[in-house]
Amino acid sequence: MARFAAVVAFLFVAMWGLHGGLAADAVGPAVVGVVDVQTILRDSTAMKSIQSQVEEKRGLYQNDISGQEKRLRDQEQELKRQQPVLAADAFEAKRRDFEAQVSAVQRDMQERRKVLDQAYGEGLKVVQKELTAIIAGIAKERGFTLVLPAGQTLYAEPALAITDEALKRLNKKLPNVPLQFAALGAKSKSK
Known about the structure:
By secondary structure, this protein is mainly alpha-helical. The protein has 2 domains: 1-28; 31-190, no CATH class. Helices cover 74% and strands 4% of the residues. It is built from 6 helices and 2 strands, in the order H-E-H-H-H-E-H-H. Strands 1-2 form a two-stranded parallel ribbon.
């Protein structure tokens, strides 16, 4: 019985291996290209436009937050100054109100950070989608059946590198990506 199972297993492996070999022969030998996606993302005009827009919005947010922080510091100083002259319950009520305002500013900062991250992520998706299409087009033109990331390749002939061509095409096709920044909540805008 064990011998029969071994023969069946051998036949299965032999047939499967033969079938797998035939499938590989039908495709032909792999022709491999290499692309440095990180370089493209770093140097593309689209990503630079995304980063510029995010930094501009971050600067606006930071100016607003700085104003709120100054207002809170002034309020804290006033609260400390009033502590000796206020009744304990009145001081405690003002302290709780102050802490609520601090918490609101912290939530506002978190919401703004989330808006920036979301806008950046959506812009990056647009660039990655376009870059994938460009890489596929170059691969088809050059007869590549496989394109590998340069960071995972130990060696490749320079003729197989498509990074520069992909970057040029991306810059031409997608010179910038206009970002949509989500509206902040009504509470954040009123403060």
